[in-house]
Each structure stands twice: as structure tokens, then as C-alpha cells.
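Quick one - first record:
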Amino acid sequence: MERMTLNRFERPKPLAVSNGKGLVAGTTEPFAVHSGMDALRKGGTAMDACLATALAEITLATGSYVSYAGVTQILYYEKSSTRVFSINGGWNTPLHGDPSQIPKVHTTGNNGASVLVPGFIAGVVDAAQKFAKFPLKTLFEPALFFAENGFKMSAGLANSIKLYYNNITLLRTAQGRSIFTNPETGKPYAYQELFKQPELTVFIKNVSTSGKDYFYNGTWADEITKHAQISDPVGEAIQHII
């Protein structure tokens, strides 16, 4: 496969593909671009391609620089109505929280007030319901495949894991140690090693079937509030933000 050098690491081409009727572009993960093109080939809309690409890219990036607990901003042109829609899935403050308590700069420690509500899942679910042809479960299929079956670790991700494999970052929590340590070697995942994400597999299956309810009002909401170590009523507010 033809290769290119990007940010000092080799990545397979291409990051943009056109089938003559539409074009899909991604940031760093060609397999995610392929997921978007597959959605178009099967009759999906531009939104189907957009969401399938974004959802797969997060799994392939191991949630590092993009995350299901992040944000999304979608600008969508609907040809049938010639209208342009904007979907803002940005950060939000807890429903009953006090915005004045949010630190103006990055702080360390367990400061619950610094934890904002991520809007990515809300934005994706709303975009899929309004503009996509396929159901959310179908759009998550490529992401689920790579989480469940794994993918070979890229040079860039392997170097990042090695760089942050310490007690301050990845090894700070039991989850970090479990996810980024290869059980076969007892060492951080290295280049070309198969990387699977069983916990993420469970997460994707739940979100793809239950949507926003699981993320903002269910098990995941309980987990994030517990790990953020924030007390009521802020914890309850995050769980009922949507």
C-alpha cells in the first residue's frame, strides 16, 4: 500500500476518497474513511458517511485525541430543501451547576466543578435521527468491529502510549493500566501489535442501542460521576443534563 509521512509517522493513504458522487475525508485513520465510503456505497446520505467516519475514527484513535466523551460541531447542507443546519454538540455545564465555579485555567486534583458535560453523543444521536438514513446501530458497526476484533497498532499510537506510559498519565488508574498494557507481554502495546478494546465494545453496544439515555442517564453517567468524585447535586445534574 502506498504510504505517506505525516507528523513523523508513516500512515497508509488515502485520507480522502471519492466515488464520483461524494467525497469522504478523515483526519488520521484511513479505515475510518473507508467506513464512511462504505456508508455512501450502501445508499447512505452525507450524514451517514460523516457519522460512520467519526465514530470509527474514535475507536481507531483509542479515544486519545478524539473521544466519545468529547464534542462535535456539524454543519450540514440538505440538498432537498437547500437549507443549512448547524448541530452544536459542545460542552455544557451541569443542569443545576454553578458556572462561576468552573476553573478558568487547568487545575489538578479532584475538582468536580471542572468536569463539563460532553455533547458528542447528544450531537451524533440528534444528527442521525434527523438526517441519516441508517439507524444509530448501523452507523456504529465499523467502530464496533475495530473495537471488538482489534487493529494493528500504528507507529504514532505506539509511540504516544510509550511516551505516556507512566504513573502520572496512563498508569494513574487501573483502567489505564488494563487498556494500554499488552497482557501477552506485560508491556505497553507496541507497533503492529493487535489492539483490542473489550470495555469499549460493551460501551458501543449499549450506546448504539440505547442512545443518549445510556450515556447521560444510565450506567455510563454513573461511572463518570463516580470517577470525577463530585458530590450531589452536581452529580445528579450531569446525569440529567439531557
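second record:
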Amino acid sequence: MLTAFGRAEAGQGDTAAAERTHGRALRLDPRQEPLVYEHGLALSEVGRIEEATTLLHTLFNSADATVRLGAKMALHRLVLRCIDVDDYRRAAAVALNGWSGQGSDGTAMLPMRVRIESSSACNLRCRHCTTGVAYHSTERRLLKADLFEHILRDLKGIEALVSCVMYLGGEPLMNPQLESMIRRLRDETSINQIHFVTNAMLATEERCRALADCGVEKIYVSIDGRTPEENDAIRRGSHYPTVRRNLTLMRRYLEPAGVQLIISNNVLRRPGDPPTAVTPAFLIEDFPGLPIATNYAYKWPGWTQTGEEEALTVDVNPGRRRGFCGAPFTESVIRPNGDVTLCCYDISGIEVMGNLKQGSLEDIWNGERYRAVRLAMMAGDEAALPGVCRNCPVYTGEEIQERPANLPVPGAAAV
């Protein structure tokens, strides 16, 4: 009766009264796991995140599958809520169950997102990308069917896994099995959000049909620079007229199927640029109605300046420096050779946490290496962090900037 009353109060928007009602119900029968779950939800709704986290984590081993899964999903939502307001330390503490002391050894709840690199090979050599300037710094290959089956078996055992990104540092469309892999992830795991990033140079009518039917939710198309010519200069091997034609083709097939297409536009910061990057006019004109995310280019871990890139430099943007990263608490990365690497910013696979041929993703996730990174991050011990963290734009705020002489800045229009 009290539970139903509390739900009714929540439905009417009186979250404080709902929390009190659910709390009373739990005090009357503290052994009832569904009541623990309801009170945990109510506490989260009124912003008592520490208490909600502690309660919901107690349900991880519940024999009631509905309660167990509900608690894990509620905790994922708490993590995302903290991230949405840039409270990354609290998000990490939710993942660790930090207020109960259970995460004091760096053990975290299993990730909500997994990143699977369907192809570490790429058909471009972009100036601002670690893959582009250090192509031979790591093994380049496509994800093969046998390893994908191994990955799939692992992911089936992770409850409340929400999303998957089929991309890291290569070009996903180089893998002819991409669409079938996406379909199986949607059909055989708890994942319901899948996206990837592409340069669109390899998009064909046949691939567009397959992508429209495979269950992918979003596709980001990379077009960089402030003009078509600058895109081709930055993204070496790209040809803007081909990209424009192929993206138009993708819109024709994918938008009616409900697939969201988004342009990812990175520009190299120049002296005098505004604090927030401005979307170039040519993209607005060529792709009316399409979302465009314009940002200044990061300096990825492992990026090195070559002799031909004398116009580029690395500077710190203080507004971007965070000094903390939530990635080791929320998502894992699997490369085509089975390596599990630290995070999505380590696109060269520098910091290997383990390999799926020697252990499960769950074992690696809470293995010694991951736990050590989490503890160092929570303690603010920069010296104890791996080099890939200390040289990551999320932590350092570093950007690749351009210092060209007498180079006019093309007209730009804000979205």
C-alpha cells in the first residue's frame, strides 16, 4: 500500500513526499529488496545521490532479476546525471560505490558502454589524428569473426550494458562485416544504442541500404576545417565533393530509417579565434537541417608533430582542462587484436589493460591495472597516472593549434 502511494506521489511530481513514503515502507520491512529498490529510486530523484548509490549497490546480487537489473540501470542513470553537470568525481564515486567503502580498492560496477574497434585500419592520414600521423605506431587490422564471437559471449554476460561505439581510430566502413556485427549486438545483448564515426569516403548505395537495416542509432560523419579545401588538406586522402555526394546518399537511405546523421567538424584554432568554435558556412549551406558539432581539435595521446607540420603547435586551453576523467569508471575499449585499452582517447592502444584471449572483459575491467588507474584518478595523484592520461586532452586541456602566416580566415556562420 505504501509503495503504491509513494509511486502516486512521484507521479504527481511530489518527489520529496514520495521519498518519505518509500522510506517508511522500507523501515517497516527492511528485508524486502523491491522496497530497497523503490527507496533507492526515490532518493535519487531528490538528489540524495550518496544514499541512493549505497542502497542500489546492495541489490547487485539479488536473485530477483527485475530488481537486480533495475538497480544497475538506476545507477547508470545516476552516473549520467552527474556527468551532465560536469560532476565527474561524483559520477566516478557512483560507479565505485565510494560512499560505502566497497570501491576502496578501485573495483567499479561493470561498464555501461563498450567501444569495439571494428577497424584499426584507415583510408585517410589526417594531420590532427594520431592514426594519421603515426599510422605504423600500432598494428592495423579488421576485427575478425572469431574474435567478434568471443566479444559477443563476454558482452552477453554484462547486464545493463547500454551502448556500444563501433569505432576507435580507424575507418569502420573498411570492415565488410560491420552491419552484421551491429545487428547481432542489438539482437543478442542488452545494448540498445549503437553508433560509429566515419569519413564517408567509402559509403556506397549498397552500404547505405545495409546500414539502414542493421539497427545503428547514429552515425557521425567527419568533415574538418573551415572550407572544403581545408578539409582535404587536413584530412589527407579525403575529397570533399565525394564526401558531400556520399553524405547526401546516406541521408536518402538512412534518415527515413530513423538513423540520426551528425556532422563532426574539427577546426584548428588560430590566433584571434573566439572561445567557442564557429560552424563553417559551407557545411550549413551544403547540408541544411543536418546537426553539426564544431569543435577545436584535440591533441590526442600519442600525437607527434612531424617535420611537414611546422605550422601546427600544441597549446593548453585552460577552459578545457579538467584534471579528472570518468572514462576508466564508465566504459571499456576492445581493439581488433583483442587488446582491452584504457579508454576512447587512447586511439593508438598505448595503455593495454589486458587481452581477451587471456581473460574475460569482466576480469580485465576490475583487474589490477584498471583499479590502479581509478584509485590514482580519485586521489588526484597525477604522478601515478599512466602517461596516456597525463597526455590526454581531457586531463590536460591541450589542443592542436595552427599558426599560419597571413592566412585569411573564411567567413563563418554560427548554427
